[in-house]
Amino acid sequence: MKIAFLGDMVVDRAVSVDPDVLRFLSKAGCIIVNLEGIILDKVVGVSPFKTYGSVIYNDRDAVMRLIETVGITHVNLYNNHMIDYGEGQFERTLEILSKAGINVLTHKTKLKIGAESIQLYNSGLAETFGIYDVSRKFGQNINDMLLEKNPEERWAGSIIHTHFGIEQVNGLSEYESRWFDFIAQFKPRIIVRHHPHCVQQPFQLDGVPCFPSIGDFAFNFNRKKTSKGLIVMFDVADSSIDCRTIECTQYQLRIGSDQVNFQARSAPTLLSKEEYRELRARYLSEYREDGLKSFKKGVKYFLGKEKQEHVLSMSSKHFIQPYVLSDIL
Fold it and tell me: How far is 313 from 275, CA to CA, in rounded Å?
């Protein structure tokens, strides 16, 4: 039983797939992707629900065609973009995927092919789900994982699949490094993470393969010229891993021919002093709140005319998740 992990996916128009990509993925019985953004039937006349940061979506025809072509079997929705267009569009996304026979990862999903099976635990920091109770079905907050009872009984021999981090940095913060250390001690088979939108150097902790960021699979929203990531092919039978690079340029997916050595490092690459300085500057310039806007939103919220309380405190277009602020500032 082989499982292929793909990176983040957002497409707003048709993507062509090189035959080499399909040949490589044909080895997998399960193919899992992080669907970053809901699926819209149409764009005209549809207004975003979220009023801060970036707002993204997938074009229904384009993304469903790509899902079918590649043979994707499971998608992760537990991320920070899934209510960009409100609960109604999120429910519509679930409906579209269900009709196509695509499985949505839950907090605990059993992946099964024939007689073989393995448990996958899904987690992340999906802050925008704060107003949406059903979100707990799709994943567990990473901080709650630190309080898990009997984690060795739950996670040993499982897959840990998660979505959190800092976007567009090469290294991990001290908090992230400690999180990987904590999870790895309970001996999952593999840890795979999404969100940074770039490839971060894989490593091993006490024999546990860790992929801190597998980057993008096809992230071509608003004509982003090139997205890069990894495809991680994990064999449940013997824990072997075949990892390849993947690139989407001008809506054309191509796979690299060389294997990526995930065994070369026994510790994560940490953020450099220069990266910390850049993040501190990014935080101070981008994370400032608009006082008047927050006041107006607060009045609307308490009058029952504003459903999204989060808009009071979120205004950064470069979203730096709050758990790393103590490391940065």
Answer: 25
268 in a structural domain = no
| pLDDT tier at 307, thresholds 50, 70, 90 | low
Joined together, the tokens standing for residue 154 give: 């739950």
Residue 322's alpha-carbon distances to 27, 92, 128, 178, 224, in angstroms, are: 39, 30, 13, 16, 27
Q: 3-class DSSP state for residue 233?
A: strand
Boundaries of domain holding 106: 2-259
pLDDT of residue 309: 46
Residue 173: how many other CB atoms lie within 10 Å: 24
> E-strand spans in the chain?
2-11, 16-17, 30-35, 38-40, 57-59, 74-76, 103-104, 108-113, 116-124, 140-141, 159-163, 190-194, 199-200, 203-205, 208-211, 213-214, 216-220, 226-235, 241-249, 252-259
258-287 confidence digits (pLDDT tens): 778 777 788 899 988 888 888 877 766 655
CA distance 7 to 36: 9
User: Same domain, yes or no, for 15 and 150?
Assistant: yes
How far apart (Å, rounded) are the C-alpha atoms in residues 94 and 88?
A: 10
* Of the candidates 144, 134, 18, the residue with the CA atom closest to the CA atom of residue 87: 134
Residues 277, 255, single domain; the answer is: no
264 lies in some domain: no
Domain count, the chain: 2
Q: How confident is the model at residue 111, as a pLDDT?
A: 96
Same domain, 278 and 151: no
Residues 161 and 301 occupy one common structural domain: no
166 and 285 in a single domain? The answer is no
Residues 226, 98, single domain; the answer is yes
